Here is the input.
Amino acid sequence: MNYGPLIFLGAFFALSCSWFGLILKPQMQIGHLQQTNAVGTGATYPLDRPGLAHQGAEIYRKNGCASCHSQQVGQIGTVCDVVLAEAGTNGTAVRAALLKIKPGQDETEARDLIATLPQQVLKGANRTEADAAAKTLKDAGAKAELWIIPVGPDIARGWGKRRTVAEDFLYDSPVLPGSQRIGPDLANAGARLSIADWQLRHLYDARIEVPGSVMPPYRFLFENRKIGRAPSPEALTLPANFAPAPGREIVPRQEAKMLVAYLLSLNADAPLYETPVTLASAAPPPTNAPSGTGTNAPSAGATNGATNTTTNAPAAAATNANAPAAAATNSSPFTANGLKSVPEDSGNNPTNATPTNAAPVSGAAAKNATPTNSAPK
Amino acid sequence: MKTAPSETDASCRIPLLVLFISAAVWLVIGSAFSILASLKFHAPNILADCPWLTYGRVRPVANDCLLYGFCLQSGFGVGLWLLARLGGAAFCHTWLVTVGAKLWNLGVTVGILGVLWGDATGFENLELPRYAALILFVAYVMIAIWGLLTFHLRQERQLSVSHWFLLAAFFWFPWIYSTANLLLITFPVRGMAQAVVAWWYSQNLLVVWFGLVGLGTIFHFIPSLTNRPLHSRYLALITFWALILFGSWGGIPNGASLPAWIPAISTVGTVLGGFAILTLALNLCSKAGRVAPSAPPPAKHWLFSENVSLRFIGVGVVAFILTGLLSIACSFNPVSQITAFTWFVPAQNSLNVYGFFAMTMFGAIYHILPRLTGLEFPSPRLVLAHFWVALIGILFIVVPLAIGGIVQGFKFRDPNLPFMEILRSTLPFLRASTLGDLLMLLGHLIFLRNLVGMVNEFYRARALSAYTTATSPLFEPAEVKR
Here is the structure.
């Protein structure tokens, strides 16, 4: 190694190797990703964010939100649940099959179970067991579904339904996956914390909503102004110790609205080929939709199930048809709650699955289902 | 004919002084920002109403001051000095470096202001916006051309070990910096491919480039300060190849939202990069080197050596080895599932940047500066004080953050713990690390004071002698002092 040019060639060679391996090859694979279809619904995924949310991503970048918030959910594996959807006509055989799947059960328990369908008959099993159980039930004439449930601490915490994949970031530039979790992960912030007013108050001062939070207040995204002839409808409703001086009000600036629109657009739970997941609040596919009007207001009892079936494009869900009950009261234009899927099945026809709110909801999803004003996980 | 070392030193005095002193100034600015960022964990409301000083802008700025202001700049300075000294080159066109150095500082200033203004690119370690990047690149080219010129004009044809490392480093930076800027900012690639490029850049800057310059410095100074020849050139050759061939593959976290082969290959790269650590350790600690008949055994342990430069560089070696071992450990999935997204990652990063690179540079600068000016440091005690304050400061940053990160990581694994509780449990560690930040600021101030004091002394002596020469005809019989 006594020649300058030799060192140059060596360095050139070494850097080229890693350049081809870690720049060119990933670029050929994930740099050319295209939109895809969500498994089950067939909805196009991902959709570009709406304009306001797009601008909000810039505010997110500008203020370095990614210094404290990651947008990457991890998972350590998947388990399968078997759900008995319909018992069919041969009750005896189904009961026998149930007893075979769960040896500890007695006859009456099995009977009770069949009476309140759909029911989870197997939880947290591996794929082979679940396939076997589903086959047993099917052979008995029942309709069984195989649900794929990703597991891991992030998912149990309610930060997402599945791990995030490269596809989720397709339209982000710059991508802001974050490297630290000083604050909670935001990959599904739009689904978890879908109330715009909550988000605005939390941005104004996080300690209003989350006592003890260390998030910096973003008061500079808000305007503290004199109340004009009438209080602005946009003004924040703040508790007494955070309220402005009498005669003044706190109104979000455009930047705050953009940022909230961005946060509410964060939702990475579409089931994809590379990350299969069955969402607990699964809806039946569009073929089974009662009607195609799309604007029917959700009745309180049916928010989870039937009403979001009129379309399979998540963008159309922005008409608020399937907003959860809590969010529906909130007149927020941002609530883009979409991307429900049907159960992935193994040979069974999912179109006959009964939509219902009584569908067994796993613990994590139950925590996740209704955003409330309590502290976020 | 070979140029005498003193002539070499005199010829590159001005550009190197510019590089070193501005590096020290950035170091102080950077640690002031890092204290501000750290204070926000004590009281989130501090300076919160000024958008320029919100945490998400202050934290990257602190990092950029440290990386681009101090590390790269001092690396250039030390690298150039070594190239010049090792080659015994005669100097020409030093203005090129001086102008380049000023331009570099302009670029960093513009970039830092840009980030504070809200123009950060959003990529970690590459936050400086595109207009600043352009200035930095031009400045770099000016500095690097001079480096190559010096190398080309060398009188000593035999290349030393340090030469390999430094030459590779001079070549490495423009490639990674231009790739990252082109693919992330000018013609951004799509989706997560951006994140891969950003991780690749970070790894190549923080591990490979810092490694090349730092080890190049270590391989020159440890033998020369201890008066013992390097144990083995061949081991050093393995270190070199392991670092550039494998080091540049690491850095992609295991949990990243990417196809699994990318983090997997990155793990392989990191583990194979362990050869660099192994061979370095063998080379420097080898028994054969220690009992070489020509060398007297060291009177004291290096940590208490009379020569402060050796102490600094010794800490640098230890920190390099530790960082490498930690990153190998963290590249395995069971470990990274705990450490990912926690404070352990910044702790490891601080150990690399402060513990390894900055300490090595401090040691080198404390060695170089007296040779540039021909003076001793006005206060050797302050140099010693800098060493201890910096060492304790680093420990106070790295140890609490690392422990806090591990605690945090284990708590993240338990989904029943509310997030706020996890946050609360990390706060004592974060607040302890503020003490480390304060110590670092103190250390950096002492460093700046040492440098400025010496330069001051030097120019005062020069001015005095110029004055005496100019006025001596007036006092003909008077005694000329200098």
User: Anything to note?
Assistant: The longest helix of chain B spans residues 419-471. Chain B touches chain A through 83 residues (CB under 8 Å). Chain B has a mean pLDDT of 91. DSSP finds 16 helices and no strands in chain B.
